Structures are given as C-alpha cells and as structure tokens.
Amino acid sequence: MNQEIQNYNKSQTESDKIICDKLYGIINQILPEAENKIWHAHPVWFLDGNPIVGYSKLKGSVRLLFWSGQSFEEEQLQNEGSFKAAEMRYTDPNQINEEDLKRWLKKGREIQWDYKNIVKRKGVLIRLMTKPY
Questions:
Q1: Where would I find the YdhG-like domain in this sequence (predicted)?
Q2: Pairing between strand 61-66 and 86-90?
C-alpha cells in the first residue's frame, strides 16, 4: 500500500479505516495501472495524469468520488459539484457493494473527462477518447 495512503487510512476511526482499506483494495484490484497518491489531502487514483477516483473523510461518512461519474448513468451515484463528478457515501463497511464498485471503476477507466487540462482550458471539460489499458 502507498505509504501516504496507508497513513491517511490509519488516521481514521476504526470503522472509517475499514471502509478506506476496503475501497483501497478494490480500487487497486480493478485499476492496477493507475497512479495513486494523496492529492488535495485525500487518496486519488490517476490514469495518464487524469483523476479517476478518490475517497475522503467527511463529517459522518466516507465519500467515494468519481471525477467523471455523472457520465456513468448509475442511479446509485449522486451528482457532486458543477462539473461531471458523482459520489457515493459510506457510513459502514457493509454498505460497499463490491459488484457495483467494480463496475463503476471499469466505467471510470473507459469514461473520462479531461480534468488534467481544465485550468489550461479555462474551466471547459472535454470528453477523452480513452485507450485500452
């Protein structure tokens, strides 16, 4: 496990640590080619420098965020922000549906908006043509 992310997970309450560890394991299983690091104070996975998925501790839950999640057409994911992000929140490790999570992660690999260049494009997002990994 990435040491920075391991430290992040260890700093959580016991229940939230279990959620974070479970998310970490499944994300790495499905996106083994992704770079992962602490970015803006929480764990994030990137493909070719583009953020795909990350999780963070919020008051009362752990949020799993997919940067391009609004394009996944998944009812369980809730829209987040004014761009293309969508989220799922967990308060208990048993709420993590591995089948759903694996499907979302595969969509995260295939459906990407170009967040890497959003500043250069002055806030305009374009859909990326993703390559097979």
A1: 19-107
A2: antiparallel
Helical pair 98-110 and 14-30, crossing angle rounded to 10 deg? 50
Classify residue 34: in a domain, yes or no: yes
What pLDDT, in 10s, does the model give residues 16-30? 999 999 999 999 999
| 83 CB burial (10 A radius; 0-12, 13-18, 19+) | middle
Prediction pTM value: 0.89
Range(s) of the domain holding residue 21: 3-110
Total structural domains in the chain? 1
Residues 6 or more apart whose Cβ sits within 8 Å of residue 82: none
Closest CA to 7 of 50, 37, 52: 37
- First-to-final CA distance of the chain: 21
* Widest Cα–Cα separation across the chain: 41
pLDDT digits (tens, 9 = 90+) for 85-100: 999 999 999 999 999 9
